[in-house]
Each structure stands twice: as structure tokens, then as C-alpha cells.
Amino acid sequence: MLCCLYIDPAHCRRWLGQMARDLEEKSGAQVAIRSSIPQPYPTYIERFLTFEEGLYPANKANGATRCDLGDLETEFAQTVSAQRFDLVIDLVGDGHAPDASRHLTILFNGYPGATALLASIMQTGMPQIALRDNEGQIVATAMPSGELAAGAFGAMDQTFARVITLLRAYLGHPDRWLQPLVEKRADFPSQAHVTKRMAKAAFIFYLKKGYYLFFHFGHWRTGWRFVTDEDVWSRFSLDGEKWTVLPDRDLRFYADPVPWQVGDRYYLFFEDLDRTTQKGVISVMEFDDKGPTGPARLCLEEPFHLSYPFLIEHEGEIYMIPETAQNRDVAIYKATNFPFGWKRVKVILSDIDAADVTLTRQDGLWWIFCVTRDGAGGYSDCLSLYYADDLFGPWQPHAQNPVLIDKATARPGGNFLRKEGRLLRPVQDCSISYGAAMQLVEVTHLSPEHYEQRSLAKLAPNSHWPGRNLHTLNRAGNLEVIDGIILRPKFNPLKHLANWFYRPK
Fold first, then answer.
1. Distance between CA 310 and CA 333 in Å, rounded?
2. What is the C-alpha to C-alpha distance for residues 458 and 460, in angstroms, rounded to an integer?
3. Fewer C-beta neighbours within 10 Å, C or N terminus of the chain?
């Protein structure tokens, strides 16, 4: 396949080389570079980007960093002299792209070009990415996550990463489920506004440095309550019975709660993270019908980070599939001495960065739902599926992977629920930031070739569950659990005063 990248030479950035190499390696394409008439940003916008690239450490030499057009033209098949290409990927949208059998124009909030991208970011945040074909039809869409973006420059990098992901997915399987096209024309703010934005960015950057001297970064806590019929899924809200906070310790937080019922006893499994090492283990706390009956106890530890302890029963045995993304695999652990003894018995996916693995059965198949990352971009926007006839595999990737690129509804947030024949899933809504809220979603089509879903409701912290962020919802029997973030100071003067006053004589 002869492929042409049609680019604006005024906006030649490293991500273009990454995209060209990806097309060559993943699609077997021979790639050429063709350029348009330069349309540079205003000088004050270029100064703004240079400022952000220097301010944030994360922006050093990322996909948004400038590169030399001559280097790209030298590297990517300039011996190709075809007058007509098999595919042109148009990043300009000026109507002068080379002739091709297929033509894909990349849109940002419905408009093409580098100005549409950056102006959208500066005006409304991360833009929707869309691919438009020769006939003017939208054939693929994505809503990238900005959870790792440092300023507008970093958001460009995160968007570029998902352009590559979306192109790869579309070229591999063009029949994709589409989300409604976002059309928002954006213009650059004034020079005075950008100057104020630069000053504000610097102030907030150094303010955060001071903030993290005194407060922990994101202290997650777990809430629980006993319910009957009126749970979150029936109410589509967090109100009802009062939530009780699971007590934790200063240098540890408890997140990703997963309850399990055995007779009249409950066992609550969760990520237990030690702030001194930033490494998570899986701990468990036993409950009776009134609440916890003892402290948290360690039940699974590995040399690598663990979280999101998904549990399942199969053929009379209890299994756990914790998140092991740091080890780049998905593994099944078998209970050898429930709830404290677990043995790793099978790696079902390897060489994969998969988070929040959640399983279900549908139409005779086992299904894995997880978010995956292909080495760049955010961690929460790419929903990938895998299916198998048996829990232990072999597992096959879905034809459309990632089946969905959406910061608001991709990342799993708890166990599936079946209600009146419908397959429902809680998801993390990372539109504002990682785990900021949740949505309740119905899976409307699930097959090895296609996937669709629709959103039913949105949940966010409120007076019933105060704090910030919300990213896990689960229930077993009558025990319902959630989690969220509160401010947790690193230094508690009252506690230290009490410790000093009551120190041993």
C-alpha cells in the first residue's frame, strides 16, 4: 500500500514520524511525505507553546516537539514518485491533498488542521478526533483522555497519540461504532489572554509543588453500606442509606473495593497502597451483618504493584484477577486458603498494559473488558475486549480493538450487572480528570466483530459521598461499596501533639 501523509510544514512535529513508522510496521505501508503551503501559528502562540514545553518536565521531547521536515522526507520513502496513492492521510484539510484511492481527513472537533487542534485545546480542552473519508462520511471517532497532559502542549501530545491509535484500529477493521460528531469551531484567544494564561500556569505549577509538600497526592478511601432493593443501580444516584468510611492508616489508602459473600459473611477485598513505597498489595477485611469484624489483613503481594482485585467463581473454585499492568500481563490466581491464600495459576494475556480487568459471560463466551495503553497517550480512554470459550483461554482479541476510545465511558469501574436481560457496567468518567466521576452504561451489542454501548446515568461525589473523584462501584449480597478521594495532610499536628504528650515516660 502506498500511503501519503499530507502535512503542513509549519507544524512538523515528532508524532508525524511516529505515525509514519506505525503505518509501515503495523499496516505494511510504504509511506511518503507531501507538504502544503505553510500556515504557521501567530508568534505569540508559538511563544506560548515554547513556554509550556519548558515549564513542564513531562513535555520534554514528546510527540508535540518540533522536528525537521527534511529529516521526515529523507526517512520516509521519498523515492516514491507515484502520482496517485492508495491512501492519503490529510492533516491539513485545504483541498489540495495528493490524489488517492482513499482519502482520510483528520478532524479535531469537526474541523481539520493544526489550528483547529490547538485552538480547540485552548478553548475547551481535549478535542474529539474524527476521520472523514472521500465521500465526506465520518468513519471513526475518538475522545482522548488528557489525564497525563501537562498544559496545552501536553494535550497536543496526548491527542497525537490517540490519532495514531484510531488510525491503526480503523485501518485494521473499518466497521467501527461511531459516537456523535462534535462540531465546535475554535479560534485562538487574544495575546493578552494568552499572557495571563502563561502567568497563571506558572503560578499553579509552583503552587502544586508547595501543596504536595503538605498533602498526599490523591488519598483514596472506601465507603460501604448495607442495602436491599434501593442501591445505586436502582436509584441512579448515591443517596439512600448512609455510607460509612472504611478506616485506614495515615500512610496507606484503600481503593478498588470488591465485596464477596460466603454464607452470612462478607469479605471486602481492595487495593492497599503504601505511600512510602507507592506499591499496592491486595488486602481483605471481614464483615458480618453489622460491619467490619476486624482490621485489614494482607492476602496477596507480588514484587510488582497490584490493584483492582476482580473475583469470580468457576466450577466450584474462587479465582482472583488483580490488575498486574506493571508486570505487563493478565493472570488468574486461585484461592488456596480463602480469603488469605492465593496462587498464580495461569497467565491468560501477556505483553500487555491492561488495567481494571473485568470479566463476564455472554452468549456462551467469556469476555474480558479492560483499558489498554499502546505505549503513549492516557491510561483510561482505550477499551479493549478479549473473548474465549474457556476461562483459561486461549483468549482472542476483539476485531475492533480498541473497540472504544472515550475518556468518559471506556475504563471499567466495577463488576457487571445483569438486570431484566440487560448487560450493565459501571465505568470511570475521566472527562475532567482520572476517576473524577462514574457513568452507568448498558452494553447494547457484544460480538467478536462489533461492540456498542449507551450511557444511562452519571454519578459524581456529592453531599451523600463528599470529597473528590469516584471510580469504583460494586455489590455482593446486601453489601454495596464505592471509593473516592479526600485531602489527607502529610502532617497531622494534633496527632503528633497527642503522641508527644502521651509518649512513654
1. 10
2. 7
3. C
CA-wise closest residue to 219 among 182, 176, 251, 246:
251
C-alpha cell at 457: 446515568
Distances in whole angstroms, Cα of residue 304 to Cα of each of 217, 337, 393: 20, 22, 24
Sequential pLDDT tens for the chain (505 residues): 899 999 999 999 999 999 999 999 988 889 999 999 999 999 999 999 999 999 999 998 899 999 988 888 888 765 556 678 999 999 999 999 999 999 999 999 999 999 999 999 999 999 999 999 999 999 999 999 999 999 999 999 999 999 999 999 999 999 999 999 999 999 999 999 999 999 999 999 999 888 778 877 778 999 999 999 899 999 999 999 999 999 887 788 999 999 999 999 999 999 999 988 989 999 999 999 999 999 999 999 999 999 999 999 999 999 999 999 999 999 999 999 999 999 999 999 999 999 999 999 999 999 999 999 998 999 999 999 999 999 999 999 999 999 999 999 999 999 999 999 999 999 999 999 998 999 999 999 999 999 999 999 999 998 899 888 899 999 999 999 999 998 777 766 544 444 444 444 3
Cβ–Cβ contacts within 10 Å for residue 143, how many? 21
* Closest by CA position to 357, among listed 330, 378, 334: 330
C-alpha cell at 30: 510504504
Residue 5 contacts residue 21 (beta carbons within 8 Å)? no
Threshold 0.90, pTM exceeds: yes
Dihedral sign for Cα 344, 347, 348, 353, please: positive
- The per-residue b/e assignment along 250-280, b for 16 or more CB within 10 angstroms, e otherwise, is eebbbbbbbbbeeeeebbbbbbbbebeeebb
Please state, in angstroms and rounded to a whole number, the distance separating the CA atoms of residues 53 and 59.
5
Q: Where are the alpha helices (DSSP H) in 143-190?
A: 151-172
3-class SS shares of the chain: helix, strand, coil, % to 5: 20, 40, 40
3-state secondary structure of 383: strand
Q: Minimal CA–CA distance to 55: which of 157, 210, 200?
A: 200
Q: Which contacts of 238-241 are long-range, i.e. CB under 8 A and separated by 24 or more positions?
A: 238/459, 238/461, 238/462, 238/464, 238/465, 238/482, 239/464, 240/464
Closest CA to 363 of 396, 399, 388: 388
DSSP H helical segments within 306-445, as ranges? Answer: none
Q: Is residue 402 reached through a cis peptide bond, with omega within 30 degrees of 0 on the bond before it?
A: yes
